[in-house]
Amino acid sequence: MKQEQFLLVLDRDEAEARWNAALDLDRLGAETVALESALGRVLAVEVRAPVDVPSFDRSNMDGFAVRADDTYGASELEPVRLRLNDETIPTGVSPSLVVERGTATAIATGGMLPRGADAVVPVELTDVEDGGRAVVLRAARVPGAAVSFAGTDIGMGETVLFAGTRLSSRETGVLAAIGAARVDVVRRPRVAVISTGDEIIAPGEPMRPGLVFDSNGRMIADAVRELGGEPIFFGAFRDEEAALRRALERGLAECDAVVLSGGTSKGEGDLSYRVVAELEPGILVHGVALKPGKPICLAAQRGKPVVILPGFPTSAVFTFHEFVAPVLRRLAGTPPLERETARATLALRTHTERGRLEYLLVGLVRGEDGALRAYPMGKGSGSVTTWSRADGFVRLERNLEIVEAGAEVEVTLLGPGLAPADLVVIGSHCTGLDLIARALHAEGYSVKLLAVGSQGGIEAARRGECDVAPAHLLDPQSDRYNTPFLDDSLALVSGYLRMQGVVTRDDERRTTEALLADPRLRMVNRNRGSGTRVLIDGLLGSRRPDGYAYEPRSHHAVAAAVAQGRADWGVTIETVARESGLRFRPLRSEHYDFVVPVSRLDRPAVRALIRLLEPGSALRAELEAAGFASPQTAVTKGSQS
């Protein structure tokens, strides 16, 4: 048979568009798998945490649980002596004794912090005396030292992973941490891989002149697997039309796509083209203006992709990644691959331990000048989400003690698809923010969330390091939220109202005034820089109840401290109180708004956020159902506030 020329050679984009228009590219259905089988799979639905992680305030090291104010002034020259309680707290055991003033309790790494204690002194900074009845401290500690507060890593009800996330060891660690034994994932696309040609032999067979080992079959099958698919290798077929037709029919019946290699030309012995041409609609593209890869054949059978790759290995693999890989990623929900390193400047002054090589986990954001900024994640070595949510790490050499803000660093990315997000959010976290991020994610926008508190978020917005800074910062002088902190470079997008209140365990029925007046009760505070801390300080005035220095960084940690008896009262939002089964006493409705640099108001993801928050929107209804009331949506410039 005389070889024919290609009917029409198309450019790459036109060829891809013509082929994709004939394909059913909806993501495949879901299946439930055990967590131990979930590595590399793609989430079919978002995952919310059913528990706090950690679920209690825990020690980060072996040492002694103390009241931090008992240690003030302690040094090598002037140590502090405390009486040891008759208890040692191992892991997995609830403490039974309260750490009273002037006392300490021995505690293991991972042990539950006892009531009364707010810090841990590492064992290497102590000496035990009097036959185990006293401990001498050679260093002072601040509240929260060597302690991971409940919910600091993950809060109950928090969205920890979104649908479409490919599960690496980082994400499976998060799932294990929240107790997920099974997970709903996208079904892997099954891909039939067929090699053709009289010259093809399987690896391991005796080589003879004129023959070649089938490298394409193995290469393409493994490329499918790397993309999250399930390759079914049908083998190498000689140029025998009936056998090849049966293999193609079986592949179409059993699989989601068929990839052949060899036989793209329309010449004598090239049967792949002839067999595929019988499909419906059959061949859509035969010949693309590429080098290598011109002979590629793109076809379909009632929405299923069928491809004949060129026989030469380089052409085969090149055209596979150009045309087939994007289709399989869409079917499997797999994100695209990205670069492995990036240059950035460090956003915050960072301390490191001299003499040790350190890998600093960072999140990447892009400043107004277009350059990348690397934010240290900062949750510590016990955190699961630090590893899960980081974009990469910075190698800090052994001779460093401090890396100044603004220093140029090289970031090694942790995996593919970790380019800077479409919307960078730095500021106060709220469960309502998860609903907003999910809505943006569903519209195709990637969202990065860095929780640094309201003040830290507004400062980041002023420096041009984020697109949105969620804030609920009360100005005591004007009694107004957020707008007093704007300048001409910032705008305010109205968010929602949420109720802050005092929470206790359900059996405590006294009023807020009675709680504040009872010196026997222990409070739990919030971290400096948070909007809730401003509200608490206004409530207390000059009073400083026991527990004032106990400063968790989230609403979930406050609720956990009260629910588990480490504190008697605290201030949190109503939705978290309800989830935790606590009694709630309303204090005031606060404005949770979004501060945006004026220069970023026209960015697509910011415009999408403003649109999603319009009155009457589906997102507004979802927020209201979750307990977040809707004020009038508006964009206010700093000069108008």
CATH topology of the largest domain: D-Maltodextrin-Binding Protein, domain 2
Radius of gyration: 30 Å
Number of strands: 37
When the domains are counted, the total is 5
Q: Which CATH class of the largest domain applies here?
A: Alpha Beta
Helix and strand content put the structural class at: alpha+beta
The proportion of residues forming helix, as a percent range, comes to: 10-25%
Query: Between the first and last Cα atoms, what is the distance in angstroms?
Result: 81 Å
Overall pLDDT metric: 89
Shape assignment: elongated
Q: What is the beta-strand fraction?
A: 25-35%
What does this structure look like?
This protein is of the alpha+beta class. The chain folds into 5 domains: 12-27 and 188-332, Molybdenum Cofactor Biosythetic Enzyme, Chain A (3-Layer(aba) Sandwich); 30-53 and 153-186, Molybdopterin biosynthesis moea protein, domain 2; 58-148, Beta Complex (Molybdopterin biosynthesis moeA protein, domain 3), CATH 2.170.190.11; 341-413, Beta-clip, CATH 2.40.340.10; 427-641, D-Maltodextrin-Binding Protein, domain 2. It is 23% helix and 29% strand. The strands form 11 sheets. It has a 6-stranded mixed β-sheet. It has a 6-stranded mixed β-sheet with strand order 16-13-17-20-19-18, sandwiched between helices. Strands 30, 33, 34, 35, 36 and 37 form a 6-stranded mixed β-sheet that branches. Strand 28 (423-427), helix 9 (431-442) and strand 29 form a beta-alpha-beta unit. The longest helix is centred in the middle third of the chain and has 20 residues, at 313-332.
